[in-house]
Design goal:
Length: 455
């Protein structure tokens, strides 16, 4: 339980002004980002009885995620997400979450990530081979679609030890998109009266059920393989065998399903989208692409990058960091306050919905100079000072930080280095690129680029 705080602050949280509720209904993400520019990083959303707050000031974010984290649970906005993820690591709270995190953390150890680097190489090789005809003809390829294909291959191999054909991975991706769409619709329902029907509820239910069948089939195949003595180096085998150090307990089948569903959903589209946005940015900033190319040539001398090269690929890493600043894969995440609290000068009541937005912080000129500019050198040791660190949190903060961060950064760095080594990436003239929010922030209609082999 949170620490009860006497509210004696007198400053009411400012409400949103001059943005119509029609705008909220049409484009809730756009509404939230406009709202974030008002006030000083804590603003009350909606109107009437809605008790929802958008938080983007780094100090207030730190208070909620770190300083008084015990007062902020995942909250009721997550109810719609729980329909899909159940009581997995992303959605659970309290002692149950703590036990699961303790149980699962060892499965994300560095050795597994090192092994995963080989899988990254294989997946990107297969995709690059399939691009050859388009490259030869100067035809565009959709780098988002390709990045999704590569990342889904990596996560399935890492999670289940399974190679997967394109048809199945396309089916899994379609289902994931439907699940994300259902979650997104549910997330915004706290703005509307509870007696209104939620659009798309049946389709959401069907998508969860279909993805469930796929996940259960993959779990039972892995259980059978384990029973046959195939120890398996995959994440799922580690989760099946994980024992609580205090109680010796293992996870139930239902819990395994929730965790696997969570890792699958949290795990590939986020990284895939990030890598695709990186290529979009690089295609628009040839000077950055040239520096990247020079770095991979110098460090790798024509060899494929491996895990041990990552520390040397410092500019590549800065490109990844800057991409996740401009396009944090999860631009918003959610909490609910337990007791009344004081955040900065503001009174926040217990039972309120809280939206934390790294996207809003990362684009705020009060925290970043020229925030819309793509400038990887913001992340040089000289410039990435403590103020910038506070204002940067694509993977969260505090005890609920992303368990997959090292995995995701490794994949992103390796993919960007490998593609930079082989191609120059150019924009397609006339292509209009816009984003859309569907839990992750992704290009709306794909991301066409033209790849030219590097000399
Ligand atoms: C670009 C890639 C990714 C981004 C930006 C990202 C972002 C995040 C964020 C912001 C949170 C915290 C949410 C909160 O505080 O409510 C989180 C949690 C989580 N992420 Fe990621 N993530 C990424 C990739 C991954 C990958 C690759 C995996 C797994 C393989 C993963 C698994 C999880 C899990 C299980 C949690 C819940 C952790 C907990 O509450 O203990 N994520 N992620």
């Amino acid at each position: 339980m949170g620490t009860a705080t006497q509210i004696d602050a007198t400053v009411p949280v400012p409400g949103v002004r001059g943005v119509s509720l029609v705008a909220l209904a049409k484009d809730p993400f756009g509404y939230c980002m406009k709202a974030a520019r008002q006030g000083d990083g804590l603003v009350r959303l909606g109107a009437g009885p809605v008790r929802a707050y958008l938080v983007s000031h780094p100090d207030y974010v730190r208070h909620i995620l770190v300083g008084n984290a015990a007062n902020y649970v995942k909250g009721s906005i997550m109810d719609g997400i729980r329909l899909a993820l159940g009581n997995g690591l992303f959605t659970s709270d309290g002692d149950f979450w703590r036990r699961q995190r303790r149980l699962m953390q060892p499965a994300f150890h560095t050795r597994r990530i090192q092994r995963m680097a080989e899988t990254v190489g294989e997946a990107v090789d297969a995709s690059m081979a399939s691009w050859a005809p388009a490259v030869a003809n100067g035809a565009p390829i959709d780098i988002l679609r390709e990045s999704v294909q590569i990342n889904i291959t990596i996560i399935l191999k890492t999670l289940f030890g399974t190679d997967i054909d394109e048809e199945r991975s396309t089916r899994l991706h379609d289902l994931t998109d439907q699940v994300f769409a259902g979650m997104t619709r549910r997330v915004w329902t706290f703005f509307v009266p509870s007696w209104l029907p939620t659009p798309g509820a049946a389709a959401y239910g069907r998508a969860i059920e279909a993805l469930d069948q796929e996940i259960y089939a993959l779990i039972s195949a892995r259980r059978a393989a384990l029973a046959d003595g195939d120890a398996g180096e995959d994440l799922l085998s580690a989760l099946i065998q994980a024992e609580d150090a205090e109680t010796g307990e293992r996870m139930s089948d239902r819990q395994l399903r929730d965790e696997v569903f969570t890792i699958f959903l949290a795990g590939y589209e986020s990284t895939a989208t990030g890598v695709a946005w990186a290529w979009h940015l690089l295609s628009q900033h040839p000077e950055a692409a040239t520096r990247l190319g020079e770095e991979v040539d110098r460090v790798l001398g024509g060899r494929r990058p491996g895990y041990d090269d990552l520390a040397e690929l410092t500019y590549t890493r800065r490109v990844v960091s800057e991409t996740f600043r401009l396009y944090p894969a999860f631009p918003m995440y959610f909490r609910g306050s337990v007791e009344d609290d004081v955040v900065g000068p503001y009174a926040i009541p217990g039972g309120a919905n809280i939206i934390i937005s790294p996207y809003a912080t990362h684009h705020d000129p009060r925290h970043w100079d020229d925030p819309e500019a793509f400038d990887p050198d913001r992340f040089t040791p000289e410039r990435y000072d403590s103020r910038a660190r506070e204002a940067y949190y694509p993977f969260g903060k505090g005890q609920r930080m992303c368990i997959g961060e090292p995995m995701s950064l490794t994949i992103a760095q390796l993919l960007i280095a490998t593609i930079a080594q082989a191609y120059e990436v150019r924009t397609v003239p006339g292509a209009q690129i816009t984003g859309r929010y569907a839990m992750t922030y992704q290009p709306k209609n794909g991301l066409p680029v033209i790849l030219t082999p590097r000399g």
